[in-house]
Amino acid sequence: MATNHTATTVKPRSDLTVWQWNCHSYDNRAVLQQHVAAVNKKSDVIMLQETVTKAPSLPGYKAHISPAEDGVCAPLSAKAHLRGT
């Protein structure tokens, strides 16, 4: 059974851009990678729900996840916006 994956862009105050994606397993990360490559402005933060993985990764982003949260929610922040990384 195919699952329809969608990405949601949320623009809070100022110019911070946050994307949310319920990925139902991060095995099919190509969909997110294609979306990131296709947009003009990269997101500052990507919130991945239901990753079902211990170490989600995406080029240009740093994952912030603790072992107790495996598969629940994985916040990723753009490396360009991090200080000291």
Describe this structure as you would to a colleague.
The chain has one domain (7-81). The chain is 11% helix and 27% strand. It has one helix and five strands; from the N terminus they run E-E-H-E-E-E. A five-stranded mixed β-sheet has the order 1-2-3-5-4, with no helix packed on it. The longest helix has 9 residues, at 30-38.
Distance between the ends: 40 Å
Shape annotation: globular
**Alpha-beta content class:** mainly beta
Biggest sheet, open or closed, and with what strands and sense? 5 strands, mixed
What is the domain total for the residues? 1
Q: Order of strands across the widest beta sheet?
A: 1-2-3-5-4
- Unreliable spans are none
The radius of gyration over CA amounts to: 13 Å
Q: What do the pLDDT scores average to? A: 72
- SS element count, helices: 1
Range of helix content: 10-25%
Order of helical and strand elements: EEHEEE
Hey, roughly how much beta strand do the residues contain?
25-35%
Would you spell out the secondary-structure blueprint of this structure?
Blueprint: E1 7-10, E2 18-22, H1 30-38, E3 45-49, E4 61-63, E5 73-78
Parallel strand pairs: 2-3
Antiparallel strand pairs: 1-2, 3-5, 4-5
How would you summarize this macromolecular structure in one to three sentences?
This protein is mainly beta. 11% of the residues lie in helices and 27% in strands. It is globular.
